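Predict the assembly for these two chains.
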Amino acid sequence: MICLTRTGCMSALALSLFCWPARAAIDVTTISVTAELPEDAVSIKEVTVDGKSVAVTNRKFTAELTVPTDANSLSFVLGWDQDGETHTRTLEVTLEDLGPPIPGLDVSASELRSFVGGGGILVWVDAGGQMQMVDFRDNDPQVRAISTDIACVNPIVSPDGTRVVYSQGSANGPKLLYVRSLSGGSAQSIATGDVGYWQVDGTGEYIVYADWSDKAENGSSGSTYRQKLVAGTTDLDGSATTVHDRAMDSGPNADGNWLGQIYDLMYAYDVGGDVEYSYNDFFLLDGTVADHQTCNGSMAPSTSAQMMVLVIPHDWVRIFSFQSNRFVETSRFELPAGMREWEFPEWSTDPGYFTAVLRSGGFNLRLYVAKVATGEMVPEYLAVTPWSTSVSYNHLWVEP
Amino acid sequence: MHRVRLFLLSIAAVMMLGSIACADDDDKGNGKVDVPFVIKSVRIDGTVSEAAAVTIEQQDDIDGTDNSTWSATYELDGAARPTSMPLDDGKAQSFSVVVKSKNVSDGTEDRKRITLNLSE
């Protein structure tokens, strides 16, 4: 729209408001709760909902709760008496109008901004292997393809949110690594390898990448390299140098002082101290050695030595943290109810968030943003894409 | 002296047994319930103001048609099924579902989040 005058703009705005498509307003009318009393509740005299008696049959009762029109929140007190003592549980219902989502997604820009505390960029690979992105710093964000490249693997957005490094080829084999601008233009070839990550320090911007290594070799058949870029561009600055003589497929932490490796078993490398830690130095919450198979690893976007890994058979996402010469499990993310597998977890550019795909029954997949927390739990999470069979590798850049 | 010690020990043992019994039984001998009732399932019913395709998380509109009513049921069993919610263990917990509508006429979308908080 071109605004010739302030009046013209106002007229256009008013017209757009009047012509705004009518949404089908969603109302909740009733909530029915079926509950069961414990087997030893033999002397219960009465069950009530907001003080009114309900029938109990074979220790079960159903409370049908009517939701007033236009209610935003309401609560019900479910109670029962036993020998003169009243027990209660309160059910609070909150109803929020979320409004329309970003076209093609199941989330709005304001929900994403609220969840991560600001704007950001989400990238993911779809069923055709193409990289998609949405920049939710915009007020009216749209999903768009980053390029026409297919068979894309592990896209990682640069710390300044302007470029993406990714691989192209088979997930289980050597690939071609590229970097390209998110605003268009041609891709810059980096090397042949597995996956690449960003590292930015006082000396410049680098792509840290590893050779492809078969599962049984735990990275021992390859190396890890660092390729400098001309700052703020996709142009190469000199040749790549070798950082470590093991293919570290989880990349570096934020300052490049640690490298991680997860396929098949976990390894970590202290670059400055030239010390390597094997899976025998990784311990679970119960103190046993974490010698289980892992994949989809990523290092913390901070100066700490923390690794996020997907545990085979995809039942947990775990974080191991370096403490006193060993790595200990400090986070264990359970599958949310209704879900069968975690897929493709990736630490974002903010240590407080990660992205992952969850699989429910069949091959229904959905991309989520989740919050990093310490302990064993289902993390707080937000659904991004609709259920589909078409989402895999992903990464979240959070506006600093 | 030994008999006195044995007597005191016997009293202590009886007192311990008594306290264990009190934890399990009320004064009428009935089982005392420490865990309140648990929610087994939740059914949510609603309407939309215009004819629309409605989905509630992974559940389609219950009758599969584009009309003005919708419904979905969730089991609080913690199973790996789309219609499952976390198991209710009698303690405080929260879960939410998002209802989506897509107008039949023009495809316009709307969403509403329903959050259920259970407190002890």
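Chain A touches chain B through 58 residues (CB under 8 Å). Chain A has two helices and 32 strands.
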